[in-house]
Amino acid sequence: MADLLTDEEIEGSLPEQWEHDDDEIVRIYEFDGYLDGVGFAAGVGGIAQDAFHHPEITIRYQEVEIRLTSHEAGGITEMDISLAERFDDVV
Description:
The chain is of the alpha+beta class.
């Protein structure tokens, strides 16, 4: 099982535009249209599946919200930070 990060470690390594929300990290990505967001969500889903680390993904008309946490560890781990960085590369 991965080690939980402290609040200080989270804040120090959190990618730009991501927020720390209790035991999750969260980002809302904005898009010009619905299908752009759906395409992004599909790409993120593939990355998550390859890593076997599954975020909560909420698709809205012009935005996609991603929430990451390590359920088995009970909070935020380095895997969450790493995936957040990889998701940012998809945009």
